[in-house]
Amino acid sequence: MIFITRRLEFCASHRLYNPSFSDEKNAATFGLCNNPNG
Q1: Phi, psi dihedral angles at 16 (to 5 degrees)
Q2: Which of 15, 12, 19, 18 is nearest to 32 (CA)?
Q3: At a CB cut-off of 8 Å and minimum separation 6, what does 15 contact?
Q4: How many domains does the chain have?
Q5: Quick one: average pLDDT of 8-19?
Q6: What confidence score (pLDDT) does residue 2 get?
Q7: What is the Cα–Cα distance from 24 to 6, expressed in whole angstroms?
Q8: Is residue 4 part of a domain?
Q9: What is the pTM of this model?
Q10: Domain enclosing residue 27, as ranges
Q11: Exposed, middle or buried by CB within 10 Å (0-12, 13-18, 19+), for 27?
Q12: Most-buried pick from 24, 26, 28, 37 (CB within 10 A)?
C-alpha cells in the first residue's frame, strides 16, 4: 500500500488595532497582538 501525504501549515491569526491610535499607542496598548503579520 502506498500513501502520498502533504504537510500544510495554516495560521488563523488576528490583529488588535485601533486606527484612531498612533502606531506607538497601538503597540503600547495591544503589545504582541498588534503584529500586522498576525
Answers
A1: -90, 125
A2: 15
A3: 33, 34, 35, 36, 38
A4: 1
A5: 85
A6: 92
A7: 41
A8: no
A9: 0.58
A10: 11-37
A11: middle
A12: 26
